[in-house]
Amino acid sequence: MSKKKETPKKQSNPVIWFGATGILLVVALAVVYWAYSENEAQTETAPVATETGLPEYNLPNWVKGDADSELRLVVFSDFGCIHCARFHTVIDEFFEEYGEMFAYEMRHFPLGNNFHSRAAAVASIAAGKQGKYWEMVNLLYYNTDRWRVENPLEGFFGMAQFLELDMEQFERDILDEDLMYNVVRAHLAAQNFGIRATPTAYLNGEPFRIPQNPAMLYSAMFGDTD
Amino acid sequence: MSQPSPKPYFIVLLVLGFLGFIDATYLTATHFMEAPPGCGEDGGCGEVTSSEYSTIFGIPVALYGLLYYLSVIFLSLLWFDREPAFLPKIMIAWTAPGIIMSSWFVYVMLFILDAICWYCMGSAASSTLIFITSAVMFFKMKE
Q1: Tens-place pLDDT, residues A141-153
Q2: Composition of chain A by helix, strand, coil, percent to 5
């Protein structure tokens, strides 16, 4: 023991150490509890569908997968949200692995804090009008750096060109004011319904927890795989 | 020539360490709770705390931060308890890695992820202030 060498000037005061440990423990517990209750509140973001079903949706929509399937997965998404992009990839991979076993509907819920998300939603619908909705959805999700810039139009036009769309029509559709207003209306309707975050998913009208990979999506929808 | 007392510096270090401790505890807790992935109406996607940069050797960086702030609190209390003469001089070395890591995380947030997590920024701010306080104390004690 090297206690001899140090010869403290003061007597050690245990009050400091016990007090500090106590305070830190209490504070840590309080913070953890607070984080926990915040987390719980976040989990309950998906409101239960009412008798009238999901919120009113007046935008043209395209179904991916088996449109006649009894299983209908509706996801409220924002192109600027990385978690939506990730979930979209999971669905893409799912279809590749297991085939098109359900109907997947992507509804636009462009969050207010990123106004280009609205423009991106309009761009996807403009491409959809020429039959390239899901192709455009992929491009938008995977190339956010192209349109999350000051002037997103250039990026959108580049993607339209890549998809060999009729540029004149695409330009008309992407600048269509009615379409823009309808995107805002769809957002407000979903907001009034109680949706607050993206992605928010519903399976046949029931709130559906977002799975992290195709296998988890499979077991969530069809029961456990063996 | 009487040496100035490092006491006020250790009071500041204790307060900053405590603030950092609260912040890091929150970040560690949310990391382990795995809040459902999603983006909120009022900003924030958890992009930072769920990114590949949020762990080192599989351990969340918030936990390293938590231990770091605990060490700062411990060393400050040690000074109040025993006043070891070497402590004001070594604090600068002990807190330097803190500011280096913080600078790296701020760089990652601003230039790699292009997303900001305010709790992480808060932690970077407190560890920067901890280093500055330690540095000022070091040079004042040298005089």
Answers
A1: 998 888 888 888 9
A2: 55, 10, 35
